[in-house]
Each structure stands twice: as C-alpha cells, then as structure tokens.
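Blinded run. Sample ID left blank on purpose so nobody reads anything into the name before looking at the predicted structure. Input follows.
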Amino acid sequence: MDPIVDARAAGATRRGDRIFSKDFNLVLFANALAFGSFYLLLATLPLFVKHLGGSDTDVGIVMGSFAITAVVLRPFVGRYSDVSGRKRLMIWGAVAVAAICLLYGEATGVVFLVLLRVAYGVGWAVFGTAAWAMASDIAPARRRGEAMGYFGIAMNISMAVGPAAGVFLVQTWGYDALFWVAAALAGAAALGSLGLSSDHVVRERRGSRRGAAGTVLLTSALFPSAVLICMALTYASVITFLPVYAEVRDLGNPGVFFSVYAVFLIVSRGPLGKASDRFGRGHVVAPGMALIAVSMLLLAWVSTFAGMLVVAAIYGLAVGAVQPVLMAWTVDRARLSERGAAMGTFTAAMDVGVGVGSLAWGVLADASGFGAVYVASAAVAGLGLLLLVGGGGLRSQALGVDHSSREGRA
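Blinded prediction complete.
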C-alpha cells in the first residue's frame, strides 16, 4: 500500500475519532448549564417544601412529580427528534425550564408547587432527551463509552457546585434569589444551544426496514433501561431525602455530600467509559451496581460527617461505572435513525426510577424511617445486579462495536 495514502487514511481515522469537536463542546456546555439550574434546586427544594409546611411524603411527591410528565413525554420527544432534529427542542426545552424556575417563587403551598414541578417536567424532558440524543449523534462510535463519560462530566461539575451553592444562596439571600439564578442558568443553556451548527439528524435510507421505528419505546433499549431503573431508584433516595436525613442525624451540610459525590463521579466517568469500550459494557456496569448496594447499606447506618462523605465517594465511583456505560450500550444497540428514540426510552427509565422512588421512599420514610429507605435501596441495587447477570448482560454486551451501523439491514 502507498505509504502516503495509508498515512492520509490514518489521519482521517484519527480526526473521525476526535471527541471534542465544536458541536460536542457546545452541547456539553448547554447541558452543564441546564444541570446547573437543576442542581441548585436539588438540596433546597426539599427544604422549601418543609418551609411551606409539607411532610416527608410531600417532599417525595414534590421532588418526584416532575418525573410524571418527563416519563410520558421523553419517548415521544426522542422519536420526534429523530424526524425534526434536536437543536430546536433543546432551545425551547431550556426556555420552558427557565420560565418555571421563575414561577417557583410564587408558590405558597405544596399543591401549587407540585403543579409547577409537573410543568417543569415538560421542559426537562424536551431539553434533556434532545441534548443526550445530540451528544450520541456527535460521539465517535469507537470511543462512544468514553465520550458519553466525558459528556456527563459537565453535568457532574454542576452537581459538585450546585447543591452547596443553592444552600448558600438560600441562607444568604433567600429563595427568590435561588429561583432567579436557576432561571438564568437555564436561559443560558438555551443561548448555548443556538450556537449548534446543525441538528445532526440521520435519515433512514430509502427501502430500509423501519422495524420498531413507528413505536415510541425502542425494544433494543429496554434491557439496559431496566438496569438503569434499579440504579435510579437508589439515586431517588439520595437526591430526595439526603438533605433531610443529614439534618435529622446532624451530619452537616448535605451540599458537601453532593460535591464529593460529583468529584468522584467526574474522575471515574471517562476512564470507566474507556474501559467499557475495551472490555465490554457489562463488565463495568456489574461492579458498579455492587458498589451502589454497598454504599446504600453504609448510608443506612452512617452517623458522622466523615462517614457521610465516604459514602458519597463510593456512590460517585459506582454511578460513574453504571450510568454513562449503560447509555453508551443503549446507543450501541440502536440504529442510526433511532438514536433519539433510544435516548427517549433510556432517559424515561431514569425518570421512572426517580419518580417512583421519590414517592415510594417518602411513604417508607414516614412509616419506618430513613434507615429503612437506604436498606431497601441497597436491595434494589442488588436486584439490578441480578438482572444484569441473569439476563445475560455479561455475555451479550457490546464490546466497543457500533451496532447502529445496521441501518437498512433486515
């Protein structure tokens, strides 16, 4: 082979495998801002519910209610984005989130706050589904696990800063200032989305078999999504009740828990995603689910600030092994023209876990206390591990192979 031609081919391959392109950076930036808005409210909305006179069950309802509309809408948004494109959905979704954040300050009771959270779920479903689909379009196939890991890092940086910053804003300037800053960040996410050069929509080739393309939920995404639900149920117990749990047990500022969690999540996502590209998705997800179970058991009995931070570190490492790798696996299994539907199914599964978990854990906390919540969360993580192993996930997971190239095949 001509060495010059060979060198050119190698250079083209390297360019094609580049992760941090202009559009990837922009969608990463917009996603970080949107999640910055979300995480400002993470440790403060439960306290706001208490401020309005709500119970632990009310906290669960408020925190989980946004997932109701998100679960219903995400699969439809994902399928629609495969046809119409991602960019406009990102813009309008972020604008809707900003508007709802401004209305939070008008809430004087739990019922109105629940209605606002349901509306918030609309904007969050539209923006989030389109953003993750856009990222999966842009990510190079051979480095998808690594790229999805890096993409989530922006979200985790927001988590590292957001909860503690939210508590600081409330303590310093009050809830109105909190809601204005959250709205400003969501508005900035909309502006960042405007800079995307295209929608990166991949059309099906003429004559290709659509298969499940007319359906809302994508069949190929269901197995990794089922494992994700188990992880999301544990996540619901943390984001919904850790702030109140820390206050009841006098564990210190709960925002620091989320900061430590996010730091370990940030440092683990890229390397673990890269490991899944090389060794297989399931061989990274399985140890992650086991660590989630361990961290939940430890959280049930933690009694010191230092112990709480140790749990945060373990949990961050574990989620870094599970969530981005499951997402890459979901994209691996989808056709090029089904990636929006794949992300709609996958992200809806996350919302199912968070929504159902927030409601169920609230009832359990009122009945049996927070210790029972975290023991039950550990059991759910164990169930996810059994599902992964028993369902053949360790044998059939993608080994860095791009199955989305099946476009047009029978």
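Unblinding after everyone has recorded impressions. The first helix runs from residue 3 to 16.
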